[in-house]
Amino acid sequence: MAAEDDDALFVLTAVLLTPAQFPSVLGDDYPEACARLGLEPYAEGYGLVLGQDGSGARWTVATDDVTLVACAIAAWDCGMDYDLSPSDRSVAAALPGWPLHVAVSAPGVAAPHDPAPEPETDGGRSALVPPDTEHWGPAQRRLGADEIALQWAVWREQVEDDVEFVDAGESPNESVQRVLKEVREYLHSPPPPGRVRSAFASGEARTLRADGPGWSMVARTDDIAFLLLDDEPGEVLPVGRGAELPGLLEALDGMALRPAA
Fold first, then answer.
1. What is residue 252's DSSP assignment?
2. How far is CA 112 from each of CA 12, 37, 63, 67, rounded to the nearest angstrom?
3. Less crowded by CB within 10 Å, the N or C end of the chain?
């Protein structure tokens, strides 16, 4: 799409919104993320296209053409050009604002800004905005977990190899025990789609991500886990393997949703 008039969209970036892969800032699971955008949690998912119109206003377009968006993202990741232009028939919603931080802007149009509310939609959905990183809450907790997953080696180096990790059930931190109990319950009562996800890691390992009410966990199946909690702002709590964690991570990986190859 090109920003030739106010109705056109200059595409800046795109992300997938599927049960196995979605911006975790939107929610602890796929249905919650969809609800944040007013979308039905269809199993096929959506692509989210973020851009500016001809006046510079921010818009988030949800399309059900997931394959098109996935191809565009893959091409961009390889440094290739790709014209991401979803057809009007595939557009599920056009939402004002952006739910994520976007570091670039469209050339030749006004600086990014939220569109003026339409008179006929007065009192309706307000513009989407990224979370305020100056404050701690569920969105910031999930963003922190995203960062650990992306920078695993950096965070892992901060935990000494000779630290004597205790079994999960013997942790002196009552919050850690509570979270691990909730994680174990997922094995018996499957949570909503997207609460447990598995992604590629180096070697034979997988990176696991689990979220729940007030907590996020990031782990590698061949290593330790990190917990982040709503009620412990900015704290990252390591959980050692001990005797229990390896089996728990293996079981979680067995039930986790995985992005399409």
1. H
2. 11, 20, 22, 28
3. C
